Amino acid sequence: MKIKEGFLSACAVAALLAGTAACTSGTDERSAAATAALNAACKNGRYEWFNVDKRDVLTSVAEKETLGKGGGALTHRPMVLHTPRVAVTFDKGTRAGAAQSKAALLSLGARIGETEKLEGIEYEFANVNRPSPVPDKNHTEVLGAGTFVDYTWVEQVTADFRYTCGTDRPVAGRATSWTIDGSGVLECSESIAEASERDPVRQAAVLSCGPDAPASKA
Hints:
Largest sheet: 6 strands, antiparallel
Number of helices: 4
Distance between the termini: 35 Å
Structural class: alpha+beta
Helix content: 10-25%
Mean pLDDT: 76
Oligomer: single chain
Strand content: 25-35%
């Protein structure tokens, strides 16, 4: 991401968002009064969001597995294709701290309407320590005969932001997290009429069933 000249350095970004004045430039050190003024101004910092992208992403898929009459357990473990993460970075790839990341993600969550807390647990969309989902270790059971594929997916959100905090020189960055994760089983010989080419179930079918399978065709 290219940022116009005049945006703050990564060091200044950390000072602005953390409300500290640990960074210096040459011999120009912040005075205690300037630090206090900056702290007060940063309480009213403002995020502006751009290029908000919210989509379902295929995270793992297993090899197709054929079962006879009566079905049974699918034993092929899905192969991981994508590992979702929770992260906030500033210009030139500088990673934000936990507090700054949480503040940015809370703002992004409000922007996309993702504000639900699950059973009193910390708001997961903004949890920078949130573990990435992994394929279920338990075997999936199917009841009928056919050629089946196990797959998993997440609804991933990525967006660019501009943050203004008591100054007319905003800082810029990017935030990413995911809202939900899920799994499914498809049958290669059955078409999936409502799935687009970008839908995880369609992508899983193409990868494991093959492009000529009914499940792979729109």
